[in-house]
Design brief:
The protein has 483 residues and is an alpha/beta fold. It has 14 helices and 23 strands. It has helices at 11-22, 37-42, 44-60, 77-95, 97-103, 178-189, 209-221, 314-330, 358-364, 378-383, 411-423, 428-433, 443-455, 463-466; strands spanning 3-7, 26-31, 107-110, 116-117, 122-124, 130-132, 135-138, 156-157, 170-174, 193-198, 225-228, 233-239, 242-249, 252-258, 260-263, 283-284, 287-288, 301-303, 343-345, 350-355, 367-373, 389-395, 401-408. The strands form six sheets. It has a five-stranded parallel β-sheet with strand order 3-2-1-7-18, covered by helices on one side. A five-stranded parallel β-sheet has the order 8-15-9-10-11, with helices on one face. Strands 19-20-23-22-21 form a five-stranded antiparallel β-sheet, with helices on both faces. A hairpin with a 5-residue loop joins β22 (389-395) and β23. α1 (11-22) runs parallel beside α8 (314-330), α3 (44-60) packs across α4 (77-95) and α3 (44-60) packs parallel to α6. The model is unreliable at 479-483 (pLDDT under 50).
């Protein structure tokens, strides 16, 4: 029987261990800390709980619009943090990871400290025990990047927010990606003055430009100071309780001051403690180098999840883990495909994306693009959430969606539906024919699809209709099928 060792007990590691057991392997799983990984313990789950609290504050601002009379909520930050920890415990209890792993006879080593390679097939644990495996799957995850510069010891990462004893009235967040924007949105909703800065020329640099533009406008409208294109952090000086951050921009040095400085500047893999050189595993920068089969330079060792640096998301971790294990146990037959990975941010409003951005799509495809604003959506009017849009990008030849981007209420949920249709290779006419419930936020996909279906001639219309500047489609308007 093949013995598979899995390093890491997060989404990738647990998925890998369970899949290996399903394939009949003997499995050992090693986790240096708590099972569940970063996402459950100090990442997605508690951050989403914070976002929920922030959203409730925003919802309270709407009370008077609907005839509800109430005092504005006050923030008890310690109670908010206590709730996030309670949510973490509830999720852990729901998952029952240890019991589940033991039930299927996976040998589990949790909270055992770092495991290190002492040979190509051998792991050494801190308790002195050695594990020998025929195949090894590395799912050791990643950690927040910490920059080193004068005064950097006065910064915290998002993982250290849970240790704050009070809500800082002013916060500098360095990093304008998904994590930075989420934290900026949350702290601003709680009443803190937020400065959000990044070296990139715009926020959310990996997202579609339209997503970045509207999110920047929204954040600024919430009195968040957005500074992009900085040329590096120079130093932090303490001014009583304040932290004065000096940074470069436009060839000059400028300063900004706040009570807390949060770094959200990247997520390198947890490599250094593994002693990869003992197993002849090559690195690629801060990550393990893998081929498209997720195989490392050591043929019997595979890697999945954040430590590969490919797509650092929970859903990607599980997907990669299944591919890595099946290739390790059954032979290399599956390659990783990152084209259909829905993702987004729990900002207010949310944003979600899948597939190609418009800029990328135009470089490689003959495309048609339609964008419908949330303000055209009846549900958005009813709920008074008018900010946002849905953008669909289709390949003119195949008439299939190759990219979708949504900003607005429930955007991360809406993008899931588009992803399912893309996975099923639906043509835009088929998207347009979906009978979506009314009134819902997801209905905006149908409105956008019907706009494109008209443009490609999938829906017959008279020439005079095409001459209109902007024909508007009602959410319930259906295509008349040929008899």
């Amino acid at each position: 029987m093949t013995h598979v060792i899995v390093i890491g007990g997060g989404p990738a590691g647990v998925t890998a261990a369970l899949r290996a057991r399903e394939l009949g392997a003997e499995v050992s799983l090693v986790e240096r800390g708590m099972l569940g990984g970063t996402c459950t313990n100090d990442g997605c789950v508690p951050t989403r709980a914070l976002a929920k609290a922030a959203r409730l504050v925003r919802d309270a601002e709407q009370f008077s619009h609907y005839g509800l009379i109430s005092d504005p909520p006050r923030i008890d930050f310690q109670a908010v943090l206590a709730r996030t920890q309670q949510v973490v415990y509830q999720v852990q209890e729901k998952k029952q990871l240890l019991a589940h792993l033991q039930e299927v006879q996976i040998q589990t080593f949790a909270e055992v400290g770092n495991a290190v390679f002492s040979g190509s097939h051998t792991l050494h644990l801190e308790n002195g025990q050695d594990l020998e495996g025929d195949k090894i799957i590395i799912c050791a995850g990643g950690s927040p990047r910490k920059l080193t510069f004068p005064g950097s010891e006065h910064t915290i990462t998002h993982s250290e927010i849970w240790g704050l004893t009070s809500l800082p009235k002013s916060v500098i967040i360095v990093g304008g990606g998904a994590t930075g924007c989420q934290l900026a949105s949350i702290f601003a909703a709680f009443g803190a003055h937020v400065t959000l800065m990044d070296v990139a020329p715009r926020l959310l640099i990996t997202e579609d430009e339209a997503v970045a533009d509207i999110m920047t406008d929204v954040l600024k409208s919430r009195n968040i100071d957005v500074i992009t294109g900085i040329e590096g952090l120079q130093r932090i000086d303490l001014r009583n309780e304040q932290r004065q951050l000096s940074y470069g921009i436009g060839g000059e040095t400028r300063t900004v001051t706040a009570l807390a400085v949060v770094m959200a500047v990247g997520w390198p893999g947890n490599l250094d403690s593994l002693h990869l050189e003992s197993a002849n595993i090559e690195r690629s920068g801060n990550y393990i180098q893998t081929n498209d089969f997720l195989q490392t330079s050591a043929p019997h060792i595979y890697a999945a999840g954040d430590i590969t640096g490919r797509m650092m998301l929970v859903q990607s971790a599980g997907h990669q883990a299944r591919i890595a294990v099946e290739n390790a146990v059954l032979g290399n037959t599956q390659q990783v495909d990152q084209r259909l990975i829905p993702h987004g941010g729990f900002t207010d409003p949310e944003y979600g994306s899948v597939g190609l951005t418009e800029a990328s799509a135009r470089k490689s495809h003959d495309v048609l693009v339609a964008t419908v604003p949330y303000a055209d959506l009846d549900r958005a009017v009813i709920d008074d959430h008018l900010v946002g849009f849905c953008k669909l990008i289709i390949d003119r030849d195949t008439q299939q969606v190759i990219g979708a981007h949504v900003v607005g209420e429930q955007a991360v949920e809406v993008i899931q539906m588009v992803t399912a249709g893309m996975a099923g290779q639906l043509r835009i006419g088929q998207f347009a024919d979906l009978e979506l419930a009314y009134p819902t936020f997801a209905a905006i996909v149908g409105v956008c699809a019907r706009q494109l279906a008209r443009e490609i001639g999938e829906v017959p219309v008279v020439p005079q209709w095409r001459s209109l500047i902007r024909p508007r489609a009602s959410e319930w308007e259906r295509r008349e099928r040929d008899s």
